[in-house]
Design goal:
The protein has about 80 residues and is mainly alpha-helical. The protein has two helices and no strands.
Amino acid sequence: MSTPAAFPLQEPSAEDRLVDLEARFAWLEKHVVEQDRAVLELTEELRRIQKEIQRIQKGFDPAPEPGRIHEEADERPPHY
């Protein structure tokens, strides 16, 4: 003899399923908007950093020729 289940399993109604899907869809829409905003902010930050790197690189002198490094090292300072 089988005993009846204390809580019979019921399939959710079509309306319940629709409400659940709408809630999930709304969450996904919000998430996509937040992701888009984050990607735009990161893109702007990347461009700013790239410009800063270019500005810094322009401030450095190009590497001297290998022969000049040795010549300058052999020179005596002016106070000798």
